[in-house]
Amino acid sequence: MNARMMFVLMAVAAAFCARECHGVSKASSFEKKPRVVMNLINFLRGCEPRCKRDLVTPVVEQIKLNTRYGFNNTILLQYDAMLRDDIMSAVSAADKEKTEFGVWIEIVRPLCEKVGIPWRGRNGWDWDWFVMPGFLESYTIEQRAKLIDELFRLFREKFGRYPESAGSWIFDAWSLNYMKERYGIVAACICREQDVTDAYGLRGGYSNGAYYPSKKNGLSAAVDMKNAIRLPVFRMLTPDPIYNYGYKYNYVDSLTGKKRRHVVTLEPAALGKIPYMVDWYFRAYTEPRGFLNLSYMQTGQENSFGWKDFGVDIGYPAQLEKLKRYADEGTISVEKLCDTGRRFLADHKENCAQTQVALDDWMGKGRRSVWYNCRHYRANLYQDGGRFYIRDLRKMCDDFEEDYLLNPNPNWNENKFTPPVIDSYLFSTNDANGMLAFSGDACGMMPRAVGPNELEVVCAYADGRSATVRFDEKGLSVSGSPLTVRMSEGWRSKHRFSPGRIDLEFRGFSYSVGVKGNLSPTADGYEIKPENGEIRYDMSL
Question: What is this structure's pTM?
Answer without folding.
Answer: 0.93
